[in-house]
Amino acid sequence: MSKLIKNGTVVTAVDQYQADVLIENGIITQIGLNLSKEGAEIVDASGHYVFPGGIDPHTHLEMPFGGTVTADDFETGTTAAAFGGTTTIIDFCLTNKGRPLSQSVQTWHQKAAGKAVIDYGFHLMIAEINDEVLAELPKMIHEEGITSLKVFMAYKNVFQADDGTLYRTLVEAKRHGALVMVHAENGDVIEYLIKEALEAGNTDPIYHALTRPSLIEGEATGRAAKLTALAGSQLYVVHVTCEEAVQQIAEARNQGVDIWGETCPQYLMLDQTYLEKPNFEGAKYVWSPPLRPQYHQETLWTALKNGQLQTLGSDHCSFNFNGQKDLGLGDFSKIPNGGPCIEDRFSILYSEGVVKGRITLNQFVDIVSTRIAKLFGLFPKKGTIAVGCDADIVIFNPNVTRTISAETHHMNVDYNPFEGIVISGEPVTVLSRGEYVIRNKQFVGTVGAGQFVKRDTYHAASREVKPGKEESVKGGATHV
Ligand SMILES: NC(=O)NCCC(=O)O
Ligand SMILES: [Zn+2]
Ligand SMILES: [Zn+2]
Question: Quick check: ipTM above 0.95?
Fold first, then answer.
C-alpha cells in the first residue's frame, strides 16, 4: 500500500522544508506541498522532522572476539538500530588467514539472512594479501558488492596486519575502486605496554586506556595516511578518538590525500575516568582505541563541525557485563573490547550535536546518513530524501526529552554505557523501503525483511566527493 507522510519538516544534508512525501512500492515518488493520493495511508508528521534513515557504517553483530561472541546478533542488533532511527547498517565480515574470502562472506550472509529487520551490507576484513586473495578480490568488490576493505593495525596475533599488507590492500583498492578502512593504533607497541603493565601488577580496567596512548593512535593514523598517499589510494579511519589522530587526518587532507575520518558517540560523550569506576565497572567502558581524557571531546566536536571528521559510526560491539566483560577480572587485557551503541548513535548526535548548537541540523543528517551513503556506495538510493530513493525514513519528534537506560533499550545487553544521560528527541516511526519497522515507538517489523545491499564501488559513487572537489549525485546500490 502507498503511504503519504503529511505535514512534516523534511530535512536532508542540504535542505529543510515543509512538504508531504508520497511512497509507492517502497520508493519515494513525490515530494511537495498538499499532496494527495487516492488509497494512500496518511501518516501524520505534524510537528516532526522527516529525516532519511540513519546509516551505521560500523557494527559488529554476532562476531567472535576476545574469547566470546558479541551479544547482539542480526535480529536483536538491527531491531535496536531501527528503534534508534537507523535503517541500514554495514557490518564487518571477519576473515581468517588461509580461508577463502568467499567462505567468510558466506558465513556472514548466514548470520544475517532471515534475521535482519533493516537493510545491511558488509565490509571485508583483509588479514593477508596473497595470490588467492588477489584472485578473489575483484569478485568480492564487483560481483558481491562488498566495496570496502578493513585492515587492523592493532590486536596483535588476532586481527593485526603488517604495513606491507596495508600498503598492498591500498594498491588493490585503488585498482578496483574499493575504500580501505583502518583501525589505527600501533599494535606492536601496545603489546609491549600491556606486558609491562601486567608484569608490574597493574591489572585493573584503567590500564587498558593507559597502555593505548593517544600518541600511538596518532602515529598509526599518520602512517596509514602516508601509505595512502604513496599508493594514491583512498582511506577511511574508523573510530577516531583523539586530537593527535584528527591532526594527522586534517594535515593529510590539506595535502590532498583522499582520507576520511569517523568518530563514535562514546568518544564524544564519555572520558577516560569511566574506566576507573569501582567494582570492575570500568570494564563496561573498555573500547579500543580507549576513551580519552575529556579535552579530546571538544577536538572531536570541532572536527565534525568543520569537516575534518565526516561520519559517526556506532562501533556497536556489545558484551554483557555479567558473563562476558568479566572474562577480564584480574587481567584488563582479557576484557572483551567494545560496547553497545547501535540504538543511541542517531539520537545522541541530534541531542548533543544539534540541540547543544555544536552542529547544524543539515550537518546532523550528513554525518549520520548522507555522507556515509556517499562514501560507501549507497547514494543516492539511500542516505537522502528525494524522488527515486528508497523510502528509508525516520519521523522524529524533537519535542521530548528522555533518559537513556538499559531498562528501556532494545539491545541484547545488560548495561548501557550512556545510562542516565538525558537527551532530547526521539524516533517515533521508522520506515524501511516504505514498510513500517517502528510505528509509534512499537516494533512492527518483520524478522528477515532486511535485504543485503550490494554497494557501488568507491570510484563510481564517490569520485566527486574527494577533499577539495565539488560534490555531485552519482551511483547507487542494488538490493539482492
Ligand atoms: N572498538 C572495540 O573496542 N571493539 C570492536 C572492534 C573494533 O572495532 O576494534
Ligand atoms: Zn577497531
Ligand atoms: Zn569496530
Answer: yes
